[in-house]
Amino acid sequence: MSGGIGSVVYNRTRPVIMKRKVGVIGAGVIGLPTAVNIIENIPDVEVTLISEKFSPDTTGDGSAGWWEPYLIGDNPPLKMKRWGKATWDHLTALLRSEIGADIGIQLVAGYNLYKTFQQAPDWKDEVLGFRQVSRDELLQIFPADTGFNYGWAFTSLVTECSKYLPWLMKRFQKQGGRVQQRRVKTIGELVAEYDVVVNCTGVASYDLVNDKKVIPYKGQLIKF
After folding, report:
1. Dihedral pair phi/psi, residue 28, rounded to 5°
2. Share of the chain above pLDDT 90, in %
């Protein structure tokens, strides 16, 4: 896979050495956690984070991550549920810690609105206070001419990346992680330098690995 989750390229031509070199391309909300996870959990690795831009100039810095599995495509539902729960448990632990507020993690309540009836999702038991919204409640809150007749209400986790990413960078560098500001035009540029290359470039995969299925979407971030 390329883009969002990350793809891995192994270099089988490099000689076997004691310390493996890993290059992670992309320093956004996928690349930084990936680099941290590798350097903290895999022994005898040298990890370099490679990106043209770093916080506060990444795509993630202008957004906030809202926990809700969607657009899962043909990925197995059980696998997506496991990944979603792992993320929820990780963020919840950070929220409950003494640094939760400082790194931008918070609980936010909201609505999902629909014009046709939707079955409750299989992740409903992970979030807090999930419930179906009645038609009367919708009319009290939202204009009648919107056409939304059904909805869910629940509380989920939001991660403000402008705070989360700098914290991850400090954590990465504290473990000896290396940072290289560089524009990578092809993954082939890095094959001779690293034993493993992990692509976490998101929408940039459109050009980097010619993945024409990766396109940008515009979202809205509202702060109260």
Report:
1. -95, -155
2. 60
